[in-house]
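Supplementary material to the annual report.
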Amino acid sequence: MNIKINNTSDKPIYQQLFDQISSQIIKGELKGDFCLPPIRTAAVELRVSVITVKKAWEELERQGFIYSMVGRGCFVSDLSHTELLNMRTKIITEKMEKDVEYYKGLGMSLDDIIKMLESMY
Amino acid sequence: MNIKINNTSDKPIYQQLFDQISSQIIKGELKGDFCLPPIRTAAVELRVSVITVKKAWEELERQGFIYSMVGRGCFVSDLSHTELLNMRTKIITEKMEKDVEYYKGLGMSLDDIIKMLESMY
Amino acid sequence: MNIKINNTSDKPIYQQLFDQISSQIIKGELKGDFCLPPIRTAAVELRVSVITVKKAWEELERQGFIYSMVGRGCFVSDLSHTELLNMRTKIITEKMEKDVEYYKGLGMSLDDIIKMLESMY
Amino acid sequence: MNIKINNTSDKPIYQQLFDQISSQIIKGELKGDFCLPPIRTAAVELRVSVITVKKAWEELERQGFIYSMVGRGCFVSDLSHTELLNMRTKIITEKMEKDVEYYKGLGMSLDDIIKMLESMY
DNA sequence: GTGGTCTAGACCACT
DNA sequence: GTGGTCTAGACCACA
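Predicted assembly:
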């Protein structure tokens, strides 16, 4: 559970939580049946509201990244390698389609985008 | 002035206006000293509040895309080709850095990103 | 009549006219009984509205810098050197009091202001 | 939060707010991470519209004096002494350049300005 | 409760 | 008629 909150970011805190945890699950850094910390504990450590943590946990559960057992806590779903890959691909594809649309709206071709990416690093 | 508002989008209306107009200026579709429609007229045509149009126009003026003259109207700034290119590059670079950071957070390398872009089209 | 209009300035155009003409009168560059150009002529030359010029001329007359004779035109008032000096002093003093108040509001002493002025040039 | 609104002033209310608060921050009267009153509360106390307060707060945020967090409130930026000094210098320099230009337009030299300042107090 | 966005009016200064 | 400012509401997402 290595999470960093940026209070001044435009991105809502609950979504920062969601993004970082889902990312760690997808990358296999958080493995199946791993027990997430109780929301109150997490809230204290991250210095955010309990409600905020709850919202992030709910969204993680809704999208199948974790499951909760009343009275026992929240656990990372035990997903197969294939399932994780599919989730990752879906997330990335959806974002990439939006991004490309945006760049094209500014008059860039796919080649322009790729060239710019290459020149940036 | 070909603008489309999506009321169901997450993106605020004033920002949709800003994005589309700044994009048209950058692409040269709106040229220097072009007179934008009066904010009240634009508000009626776009079916949004005058305030919303005003907010978009303000941001456009703040970033140097347009200039306003009380009692006369709002006009597209007469920018050189170089200035337009610089504005475009700045906007694109800022977004691209965020995007790449996001993709890397999901474990993608720059090569992965480029390959995926190529395979998408 | 050497006047420059800045359309993008915050200062209203009629006031730019007023400031520049009154300044020229105070400095003696425009002498008594000099005939100002007709407002329509001035409007064309300066590329501003007739109404704008009229407003500036009216304000000049109201403050005693010029006088108008119906059907004949507007003329610079024939003021004595002493009267011009008094006008100048009054204008400068009024502005300076406001300015000093502003600087003091930001925590500057009179010494600070003077030092800053000296260091600026 | 000691603020006075002058409804009869030429200066817009939102700018009076901006000027007074930024001034207090620059002078160190409002320190870093100080929580500003909620915009609705401020609006009631100052007897102005919420929108007007919002506009002032927005400009303060844009210039780096404060930062806002949705659902939490608005806070004074935690700026170093150096950063505060730089902000102050920038604001003062910009105004002073305009002022000097005005006085020179009336035929005053820098010496004249300084002498007049000294004689005023 | 907090800030962010939006509406449908209004009045004013400027052109 | 133009932009600039302001009001008094409202709804939403976030904490």
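The radius of gyration of chain D is 17 Å.
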